[in-house]
Structure formats: structure tokens, C-alpha cells
Amino acid sequence: MAKYRGTIKKNDIEGGIWELHTEDGERYQLRGGSNDLRVSGQKVQIEGKVDQGGFGIGMTGPILDVSFWKAL
């Protein structure tokens, strides 16, 4: 599993989706993880796998399947 560090942000498109904005400037739509992950502005490290084959409902970036996360 790859590790990603960044900030959680809510995007209000399509009723609301949660994204990780990484320190590298990438943006991923989150799939999985607990409700505690979904706090706008929270700095986190996420372990997971990027689904390169599809986009979610928000079409804002690739989907990151969250296996583990922690607040920083």
C-alpha cells in the first residue's frame, strides 16, 4: 500500500464528496475510512490504493481506497 499525506477537504459537488489534497498537489476522491476521517481541514496520512480505472460521482480525481489512516 502506498502512503499519502495531505489535507481532507469537502467538495460540495453532487451533494458532497470528500477529498484528500496531497502535499504534492494531487487530489483524490476518498472511498472508505471511518467517519472520523471526514473532517474538513484535518491533516492526515492515508495508506491505500488508487483506483486508476475509474472516477467517482464527483469526477474530481482518481479514487483512493482507504485501508488505514491517522491524523497528523
CATH superfamily: Nucleic acid-binding proteins
Strand content: over 45%
CATH class: Mainly Beta
| Unreliable residue runs | none
Helix-strand pattern, N to C?
EEEEE
Give a description of the structure.
- There is one protein chain.
- This protein has 72 residues and is mainly beta.
- It has one domain (2-71): Beta Barrel (OB fold (Dihydrolipoamide Acetyltransferase, E2P)).
- The protein has strands at residues 2-11, 17-22, 27-31, 43-55, 62-71.
- It has a five-stranded mixed barrel.
- A hairpin with a 5-residue loop joins strand 1 (2-11) and strand 2 (17-22).
- It is globular and about 30 Å long.
- The two termini are 19 Å apart.
State the gist of this model.
The chain has 72 residues and is mainly beta.
List the helices and strands and how they pair.
Blueprint: E1 2-11, E2 17-22, E3 27-31, E4 43-55, E5 62-71
Parallel strand pairs: 3-5
Antiparallel strand pairs: 1-2, 1-4, 2-3, 4-5
Give keywords.
0% helix; OB fold (Dihydrolipoamide Acetyltransferase, E2P); 5-stranded mixed beta barrel; mainly beta; single chain; globular; 72 residues
